[in-house]
Amino acid sequence: MTPPLLSLDGVSRHYATKPSVLGRLLPNQPVVRAVQDVTLAIARTEILGLVGESGSGKSTLGRVALALEPPTTGKVLFDGTPPGDNLPAFRRRAQMVFQDPQSSLNRSLTIERILESPLVVHRFGNAAARRERIAELLGTVGLRADMMRRYPHELSGGQRQRVGIARALAIEPAFIVLDEPTSALDVSIQAQVVNLLVELQQRLSLTYLFISHDLRLVRWLCDRIAVMYLGRIVEIGPAEALWHAPRHPYTKALLSAVTAETLQPPEAAGDVPSPIRPPPGCAFHPRCPAAGPRCSREAPRDVTANGVTVACHLHDGGVS
């Protein structure tokens, strides 16, 4: 069996509510549990979708996967090796496309300088070779080579996001985290950018972690979907399986907002609890229409059947 390109084993990421002078977590100090005990693996050339409400920990998990933030506990392996063992080499192979292209691009630099930066950092050729590579990158994302002389404010939102994608591709990575890459774009432009991402993934054999709140898009684009709630993965499986037969009440609640294909779609009551004081037992139980006494006492374990893994007592002996 081919090992995964990226794996997370028991990964948590906590933040101090009041950091100490050294930025460390102190004993008995309240913490924000942004990511809690996440274990998952992403296969080579797979597109894994990560969905959940705002504040569920999706973007934090993406940053931990890229070693932009260290895990508080657990470990991350990329191609079988911790990223920290050779961080420069890891940076060449793992990149990110951000949500808002306007804020992620340096407005004081030309497009040429923006795209040249990663090439310089990773010592790609001489000035002439870098300029040739920049022109190639612009063509790859559907932009003209003469756009390298422009500044970000002279481009449309879709063009700026194409520049962001080109920057991520500059040093030929294998893995890209796409953090809601179309949410800041006009609806008319979103499909163009998504089609570009699909074409690049297939042509360059890329692996994506696609973070989004758009379940219809994730269903269409992704091989598998992971559903995140209050820092935990509550369900993960093939995209079509989760769309047509969701098992976790939270997944059903998310789908109820976008489709009538599920029978008697439930609604998640109330607001998302604070990640500083998550509920005991199953974190979703205060909002869950199927919750029972066991849900408030005992955290559910992962149960796998037919390729879908779900953490819910409904699938592990009942909620009583």
Would you mind describing this structure in some detail?
With 320 residues, this protein is α/β, with parallel strands linked by helices. The protein has helices spanning 58-65, 87-93, 101-104, 111-121, 127-140, 157-169, 187-204, 215-221, 239-244, 249-256, 293-297; strands at 6-16, 31-42, 47-51, 73-78, 94-97, 175-179, 207-211, 224-229, 232-238, 302-305, 308-311. Strands 5-6-7-3-8-9-11-10 form an 8-stranded mixed beta sheet, with helices on both faces. A hairpin with a 2-residue loop joins strand 8 and strand 9 (232-238). Helix 4 crosses helix 5 (127-140) and helix 6 (157-169) packs parallel to helix 7 (187-204). The longest helix is centred in the middle third of the chain and has 18 residues, at 187-204. The protein is globular and about 70 Å long.
Keywords, please?
alpha/beta; globular; ATP binding; transport; ABC transporter ATP-binding protein; Oligopep_ABC_C; ABC_transporter-like_CS
Question: What is this structure's SSE topology?
Answer:
Blueprint: E1 6-16, E2 31-42, E3 47-51, H1 58-65, E4 73-78, H2 87-93, E5 94-97, H3 101-104, H4 111-121, H5 127-140, H6 157-169, E6 175-179, H7 187-204, E7 207-211, H8 215-221, E8 224-229, E9 232-238, H9 239-244, H10 249-256, H11 293-297, E10 302-305, E11 308-311
Parallel strand pairs: 3-7, 3-8, 5-6, 6-7
Antiparallel strand pairs: 1-2, 1-4, 8-9, 9-11, 10-11
Helix pairs in contact: 4-5, 6-7
